[in-house]
C-alpha cells in the first residue's frame, strides 16, 4: 500500500510551524546541525545510548507527564540529527510517543504505509533543518549551479546542513530545485555508493558514535555524593551506567578500611 501524501494546505501549515519555531529559538538563517540536540534537551529528558541496530533510530515516550527521548548513538550522526528534529515535531505538536524506525525516517518502502503524523514529522524536520531561503543562500555562496546539481553538490550540501543524503535529495525536490527525473536518479543510489562518493570527496561527519548520555543523571549523582547522600559504591555504579569511572570524574578510590591489630590497640591504650 502506497504512502498517503500531504496536501498543500497541510504542507503550508508545517512550513509555518517550522519558521515559527526557528524564530522562537533565534535560529532563523542559521544552520541548525548539532544544535538540534540542545533544542531537544530544552523540551525533554534526552538519553543517548548506542544499540547496534541501524533500523532503530530512537524512541520517545511520556511518563507521568514528563517527555523522554532516546537517540541511538550507534547510527550515523546525520541520522541522529534528523531523528531529533523529527521528535521535536511530536513533542511540540502532537505529544505522541513512538519508536523511530529507519523505514519511517527515509520513507523508502512503499509497502509500509506511514501515518499522516509521521509524514508531518518528517516534513517538519526537513523544513526546520533545511530552511528553503537558507538553502538557496548556501547554494549561491558555494557557487552551485541550480540547473546542474550533481551528486558532489548534494553531498556537500548534506554535510553542510548535517542531514542524511536522502533527506537533502528530497529537500531539493520539495523546493523545486531539482525535478522528478533527477530526484529518482539521485534516490536510486545505494548507501554504499553514497559512502564511496563521500570518501572520494573527503567528506566526513562529526563523530558521535556510541556516545552515552543519561540526561543529568551523572551531575545529580555527583551532587548527592558530594553532599554525602550516597556512598562511593553507589556513585561508582551510576557512573558505570554512563561508561564513566571514578578516575574520569577526578575521584581517587578510597583505601579499604583495615581495623587496627591487637598490638596497635595495646599501644594506643597504653599511651
Description:
- With 271 residues, this protein is an alpha+beta fold.
- Helix content is 52%, strand content 10%.
- It has 13 helices and five strands.
- The chain has helices at 8-24, 35-43, 77-94, 102-106, 116-129, 132-141, 151-161, 165-174, 180-187, 191-201, 217-226, 232-241, 262-270; strands at residues 45-49, 56-63, 66-72, 98-101, 213-214.
- A five-stranded mixed sheet has the order 4-2-3-1-5.
- Strand 2 and strand 3 form a beta hairpin.
**How many distinct helices?**
13
List segments where confidence is low: pLDDT < 50 over at least 5 consecutive residues: none
- Beta-strand portion reads 5-15%
Side by side, the strands of the main sheet go 4-2-3-1-5
Distance linking N and C termini: 91 Å
Q: List the helices and strands in order.
A: HHEEEHEHHHHHHHEHHH
Overall spatial form: elongated
- Which radius of gyration do the C-alpha atoms yield? 25 Å
The beta-strand count equals 5
Major beta sheet summary:
5 strands, mixed
Mean pLDDT: 85
**Helical amount:** 40-55%
Amino acid at each position: 500500500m502506497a504512502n498517503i501524501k500531504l496536501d498543500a494546505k497541510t504542507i503550508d501549515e508545517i512550513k509555518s510551524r517550522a519558521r515559527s519555531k526557528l524564530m522562537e529559538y533565534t535560529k532563523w538563517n542559521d544552520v541548525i546541525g548539532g544544535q538540534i540536540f540542545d533544542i531537544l534537551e530544552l523540551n525533554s529528558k534526552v538519553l543517548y545510548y548506542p544499540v547496534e541496530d541501524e533500523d532503530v533510530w530512537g524512541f520517545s515516550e511520556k511518563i507521568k507527564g514528563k517527555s523522554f527521548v532516546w537517540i541511538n548513538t550507534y547510527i550515523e550522526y546525520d541520522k541522529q540529527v534528523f531523528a531529533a528534529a523529527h521528535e521535536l515535531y511530536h513533542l511540540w505538536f502532537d505529544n505522541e510517543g513512538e519508536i523511530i524506525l529507519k523505514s519511517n525516517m527515509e520513507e523508502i518502502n512503499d509497502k509500509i504505509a506511514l501515518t499522516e503524523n509521521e509524514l508531518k514529522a518528517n516534513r517538519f524536520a526537513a523544513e526546520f533543518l533545511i530552511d528553503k531561503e537558507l538553502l538557496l543562500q548556501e547554494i549561491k555562496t558555494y557557487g552551485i549551479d541550480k540547473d546542474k546539481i550533481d551528486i558532489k553538490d548534494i553531498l556537500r550540501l548534506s554535510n553542510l546542513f548535517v542531514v542524511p543524503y536522502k533527506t537533502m535529495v528530497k529537500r531539493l525536490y520539495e523546493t523545486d530545485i531539482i525535478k522528478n527525473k533527477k530526484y529518482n536518479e539521485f534516490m536510486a543510489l545505494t548507501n554504499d555508493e553514497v559512502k564511496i562518493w563521500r570518501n572520494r570527496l573527503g567528506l566526513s561527519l562529526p563523530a558521535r558514535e556510541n556516545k552515552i548520555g543519561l540526561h543529568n543523571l551523572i551531575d545529580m549523582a555527583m551532587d548527592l555524593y558530594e553532599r554525602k547522600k550516597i556512598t562511593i559504591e553507589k556513585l561508582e555504579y551510576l557512573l558505570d551506567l554512563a561508561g564513566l569511572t571514578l578516575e574520569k570524574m577526578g575521584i581517587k578510590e578510597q583505601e579499604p578500611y583495615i581495623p587496627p591489630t591487637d598490638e596497635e590497640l595495646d599501644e594506643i591504650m597504653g599511651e
